Amino acid sequence: MPKSLLFVLCSTLFFGTARAENLEIQRVRVAAEQGDAPAQCNLGFLYHQGRVVEKNYDQAVKWFRLAAQQGNAQAQSNLGLMYLSGKGAKQSYIDAVKWFRLAAMQGNADGQDNLGEMYLYGWGVKQNDAEAVKWFKLAAEQGEADGQFNLGFMYTSGWGVKKNDAEALKWYRLAARQGTIAAQNKLQSMK
Questions:
Q1: Residue 185 pLDDT
Q2: What is the per-residue pLDDT across 100-127, written as a single tens digit (0 to 9) for each?
Q3: HEC string of the chain?
Q4: How do residues 18-69 score in pLDDT, each as one tens digit?
Q5: What is the domain range of residue 19?
Q6: Which among 25, 65, 96, 176 could bridge 184 via Cys, Cβ 3.0 to 4.6 Å?
């Protein structure tokens, strides 16, 4: 099952009072309009979430794309998620894979996990469990909770790797420690 759309701020933003939020969004918008890729990614995130600005998926895609085209790996992964979901962009597995791969090749853990899911389900690529494992492992080793859960799942099922419950438990535990409910449930069911 594909993970829900979770977006990560490309750089840290702190919001407090309404006045501070207005000043911060103005600074982000100015920087984004001047071509600052992290600011563009942040502005895309804000539009996606409807935080401080009205939710607008078209605007989210616009700002993610501008940052992604400059090589911002988190924006590339976020843009891939927009293509995967069809929010703000025409749904396209091919385009989702393109952006996930660009992010993944830069070492972005979200992009790696997302690309792994595309291989697992055969969306936009030929289905390939071993390739899914490769990308899940790269994400998991960086501490990405969904990658850890997905890698645990692959070890539990024996898809793309030799079935190994001990290895599965290792990855489920790591994901569970980060609050991944599905991993916590798997640990309970494996007792």
A1: 94
A2: 999 999 999 999 999 999 999 999 999 9
A3: CCCCCCCCCCCCCCCCCHHHHHHHHHHHHHHHHCCCHHHHHHHHHHHHHCCCCCCCHHHHHHHHHHHHHCCCHHHHHHHHHHHHHCCCCCCCHHHHHHHHHHHHHCCCHHHHHHHHHHHHHCCCCCCCHHHHHHHHHHHHHCCCHHHHHHHHHHHHHCCCCCCCHHHHHHHHHHHHHCCCHHHHHHHHHCC
A4: 566 678 888 999 999 999 999 999 999 999 999 788 999 999 999 999 999 9
A5: 1-90
A6: 176
Asked if residue 149 belongs to a domain, the reply is: no
Number of domains within the chain: 1
Quick check: 89 and 82 in contact, CB under 8 A? yes
